[in-house]
Amino acid sequence: MGMRGFFLAKAGLLTALLLGTAQAQRTTVEFWHSMGGVLGEATEALVKEFNASQNRVQVKAQYVGSYDDGINKLLAALRAGRGFPHVIQVYDIGARIMADSGAVVPLEDLARRNGFDLDRFLPQPRNYYTVDGKLYGLAFNSSNPILYFNMAAFQEAGIPFKPTWSLKDLEEAARKLTKKDAQGRTVRYGLSIPIDSWFVEQISYNSGEYFCNNENGRRARAMAVAFDNPAAVAFLDTYARLVREGVAANTGRNWADSQSLFAQGQAAIASYSTASLTGVLRQVGNRFPLRTAYYPYLKERNGVAIGGAALYVLKGFPEAETQGAWEFVRFLLEPKTQAKWHLATGYFPVVKGVAELPEVRQAHVRQANYTTAIQQLATSKVNNASAGCLMGAFPEIRQYVQAAWEEVLKGKPAQEALREAKAKADAALERYNRGVAGR
Amino acid sequence: MALVLARKGVGRKGEPWSALPFLLPAYGLFLLFMVLPVLEALWLSLHREDLFGRGREWVGLGNFQEVLARPEFWKSALLTLKFALVVAPLELALGLLAALLVYRPYPGVAFFRTLFFLTTAVPTAVAAVAWGWFLHPVGGWANRLLAGLGLPPQPWLTSPDLALYTLGVITAWAGVGFTAILLTAGLQNIPEEVLEAATVDGASPWTRFFRITLPLLSPTLFLVGLLVVLKSLTAFGQIHLLTRGGPAESSMVWIYRVYQDAFFNFQVPLAAAEALLLFLVLLLLAALQFWLIGRRVHYAA
User: What pTM was estimated for this model as a whole?
Assistant: First the structure.
């Protein structure tokens, strides 16, 4: 081996050594998420891009099952005092629980420490995850409910498209869109909405009503629910009336059962999340032109709250690891990342200036339905109703609302069914508050 | 028979100890995945804590008292009983019918045996999703069939009056293959001479079935019946995938209540108490079953 060869080998060794130490010094950040299927692929792609973009932090993403599975795995880890990740995705209604856990480093603290301007957030995603005046979570995947229209059916019934709908207008349109055969059996339903508490919550917000007291738990901790409000009552009574008339379909709690009905042209109007758009478009194919519109309201349109889920950075790790978690979060907040995520999933951007990016603009021209959610958010009033209800025991309370909806479908007046559900929900909330805050 | 043989083996000197290393892995797994979780559930059920595990305190049997005082718990227990009463007779009747069709060899019997057993081989999740499509309130085949017959469509899983029965039928369908196998074995154990003697005496097939086959099969039927009841008490997957305890809590059976209380209501200690109470019921049923098997082995010998 000549001098040259020796030098090269030495250089190679040195490089390997340096790379090795760089590898070893890379901070590992564990990330639990609940994004399955296409959404999971999009999430993994972002993680991969982040890992490739720098050499300090390595994010290890893990799919931990549904939202329900995810929060339960977290609670089990917190109970055991070990085994929780640096970053976790938790559903929208877990915001109060996450803040009460005492296990979260508020996003606001991280942002201030690192000089990130919180005003770059859109107001609604920021308001939703603000608890007791402090922003806790990053609205990672944010959605809102929209209406889906079968425009072939609309044309046939002679109903013109419009973006905003009162409940009353929607009811009339649904009646006109319904087609029955000679025996009076429904061939095409006018309306189909899955039985999900989320739609009752949103009709409340969009009509300027609160879903829980103390202004949706925004002025002070919510101590009781307020879902027996006029908007929720009217919504459930209207839906049940339309089901009895054969105008609306009752497909139960399973969203997929309603979506198949809509996609096959057997229901002319439906309501799902914006995040359902990609899937529904694929299911509909070329069967009919599809348009989307804003979620209905009772008397005057206020604005919807965001749904979806947020990312939380958890306490209990060395400073360097928490800083690594922040770098990952910071990467997700980049307009470019937000644009990719929006275009891959249909969830809307949560920071300003994304809709103006050329790739987003082009995509919106190609498929204008993707702008509905963004515009719905932009035209929503910013107040405590549209901030969304913040309360503990929300997962349990949703079950009572859904059971009430089913009671109304069976014939009980909505006022009565919701009042009975309220008693159970208030007890659950009281128990939660006593357990968590009372000590 | 197997029991008798096993008892003989135990009698030989030294053998139990040499068997231990072979049994250890099985015992270890049993300990790790069965005994320890039950003990942990027991420990949990005797404490109270918030959903994050803070403020843990010993409450003795307090959780059990609270569970037993809740009307929802008794509603669920009653629903569970109703569910078992739907599943067990149906699954036994269908299983017996299938067993009668395949217990004697004839050309192509293997095909039918496989066909009947197939329902057991289908994973619960797959079966539940397929049933969901079949029973779709509007576009499902079940309602299209009804429409073809000029009958109105039925809200199979979306009506609180119907959902539990529909789930019962699905559960019976899923278990019928296994039940048929056990009953086939039972039918094959009935001495051929007895039936031949009856035929010679001029008994009709009908009489032979009701006067000879059924009485001789009844111990097996009872045992299998108990097994079916045990299985129906722990039916979870189909309920989780099809109704989630709804509509209007009409399918909120005991085990689903446990799931709901633990993972939606975040009352883990209370759910542990509920689960242990269900465990107790299952244990009693299993004990009854073992006692009967013991008697039956004695009887056969």
Answer: 0.89
